[in-house]
Recover the amino acids of this structure.
């Protein structure tokens, strides 16, 4: 079936295979509830996903029916409606006795429920519980309401998105329509002729920090230089987090998701294979999702004396599955709130051009290349490809001190003496 069996976070519903269908399970005030959908119910995968969203909305708005009667009634009504639709379709069906078996069985445009088909696609892809890439694409389909497939390119172009967001939605929908075409539900993919948008690779807010800028920022964090007297929380609590980002060059979510058991002081290595990523629900601790890294690459980072000194106090007296970087409340770091409340004000106070936290990764890459580290080694340390590292992260804004040894110095002795 391909449905995730991971335990859901508090307040959400898990969907998992059970017997010959799907089971929805969740907890309310420490009491477990569950509903079962048999595979004999038409489009039972879609109905499970829709029921999941209804339940989560009811829980959020405190309208949950603990008797479950409301949800059982909705399922019954949906099944009855589906049976009626199937009877009407059967009655109005056209004989296909003279048609080729390979001809796609395409319903008229107005009878294709794109959202319903997308829900079936999510079940097959094992992405029913996704809260980001697929969930945001589904949200757009719901927003568009009733539309014809030929209108999809125009609907996409109307959205005021960045190039990255446009490409994400376009790529997700393109794969979905390719799947529908393979399943002979549609004749053509409406996005075949729609290309990804060119992304602006240089972002001013991701320009690398100079060495002096990085040094004064770290010093300001460490000494609470710009902490307001009225603030209950220190800036110094974030010093290890920012120092680690600048020193290692990992993604912020990878640092936030680093667990103690992956920091090996005995062999002086750090394993980075997971991240605690943001979701569509937010950047706070309960909204984040623990998963593999962006490229699903696992890498070992060698620890030097500076890293050992930085990390030992953070790992002391913690359990293996505890996170290394925590705030003063004992929770994982919310990098969005950190940027807004601490990192940005410090840069303003120091009169440093504004950069986001991700600029630390760009700083690491730029410094590493200038210090002579080989591109393939840098790509490994950063968990990315050589092409991506050099095109996205290395900022070549510094003139070399000299040209490499040239042909003239080899062919003409006078040139060699002059050099």
């Amino acid at each position: 079936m391909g449905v995730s069996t991971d335990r859901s976070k508090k307040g959400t519903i898990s969907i998992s295979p059970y017997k010959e269908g799907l089971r929805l399970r969740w907890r309310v005030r420490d009491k477990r509830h569950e509903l079962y959908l048999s595979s004999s119910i038409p489009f039972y995968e879609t109905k499970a996903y829709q029921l999941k969203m209804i339940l989560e909305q009811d829980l959020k708005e405190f309208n949950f029916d603990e008797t479950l009667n409301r949800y059982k009634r909705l399922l019954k009504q949906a099944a009855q409606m589906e049976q009626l639709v199937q009877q009407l379709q059967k009655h109005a069906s056209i004989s296909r006795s003279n048609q080729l078996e390979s001809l796609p069985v395409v319903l008229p445009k107005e009878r294709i429920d794109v959202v319903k088909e997308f829900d079936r696609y999510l079940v097959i892809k094992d992405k029913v519980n996704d809260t980001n890439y697929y969930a945001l694409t589904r949200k757009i389909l719901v927003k568009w309401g009733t539309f014809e497939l030929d209108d999809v390119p125009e609907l996409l172009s109307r959205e005021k998105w960045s190039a990255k967001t446009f490409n994400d939605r376009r790529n997700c929908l393109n794969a979905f329509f390719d799947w529908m075409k393979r399943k002979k539900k549609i004749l053509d993919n409406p996005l075949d002729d729609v290309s990804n948008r060119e992304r602006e690779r240089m972002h001013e807010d991701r320009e690398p920090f100079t060495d002096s800028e990085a040094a004064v920022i770290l010093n300001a964090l460490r000494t609470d230089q710009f902490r307001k007297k009225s603030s209950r929380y220190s800036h110094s609590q974030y010093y290890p987090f920012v120092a680690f980002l600048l020193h290692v060059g990992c993604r912020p979510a990878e640092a936030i998701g680093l667990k103690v058991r992956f920091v090996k002081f005995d062999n002086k290595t750090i394993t980075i294979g997971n991240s605690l990523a943001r979701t569509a629900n937010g950047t706070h601790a309960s909204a984040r999702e623990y998963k593999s890294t962006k490229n699903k690459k696992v890498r070992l980072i060698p620890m030097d004396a500076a890293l050992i000194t930085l990390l030992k106090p953070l790992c002391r007296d913690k359990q293996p599955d505890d996170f290394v970087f925590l705030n003063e409340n004992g929770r994982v770091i919310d990098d969005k709130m950190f940027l807004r409340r601490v990192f940005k004000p410090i840069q303003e106070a120091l009169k440093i051009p504004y950069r986001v936290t991700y600029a630390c990764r760009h700083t690491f890459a730029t410094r590493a290349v200038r210090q002579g580290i080989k591109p393939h080694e840098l790509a490994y340390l950063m968990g990315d490809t050589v092409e991506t590292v050099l095109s996205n992260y290395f900022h070549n804004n510094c003139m070399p001190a000299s040209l490499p040894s040239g042909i003239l110095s080899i062919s003409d002795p006078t040139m060699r003496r002059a050099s």
